[in-house]
């Protein structure tokens, strides 16, 4: 199946996809900050470069996009019809990297919280309070 966009249009669309400061990430950050939590962002020295680091709690939060991190059983994770092998390879590599960085962080003594994009779309408040409850248990 051929792509419905020209090469230039597809390139432009892909260039607009952000890796930092995404809407779900900003939503979680605003919630945490309003509740009095202070955090760091995208620490390059930590494995996997977590989206949010809470040093006081020795916790990190990853906010995963369902498509890019292969959220199984999610309606937002759809394997593309074009270049399927390439996309599956890329998504599987992302999943492997996620697993490696989570293991490395847990070994270093960090509590790892993973939030999926779809949870923030469907059950926003429930998900945000679940994150906060996880942090409360750590203190």
UniProtKB/TrEMBL annotation:
Biological process annotations from GO: mismatch repair
Top enzyme class: hydrolase
InterPro entries for this protein: DNA_mismatch_endonuc_vsr, Restrct_endonuc-II-like
One Pfam family per UniProt: Vsr
Keywords associated with the record: DNA damage, DNA repair, Endonuclease, Hydrolase, Nuclease
One MF annotation (Gene Ontology) recorded for this entry: hydrolase activity
Record flagged with keyword DNA damage: yes
The enzyme's E.C. designation: 3.1.-.-
Statement: the UniProt record of this protein carries the keyword Hydrolase: yes
Residues in the signal sequence: none
Function: May nick specific sequences that contain T:G mispairs resulting from m5C-deamination.
Family, as annotated: Belongs to the vsr family.
Protein's name in the database: Very short patch repair endonuclease
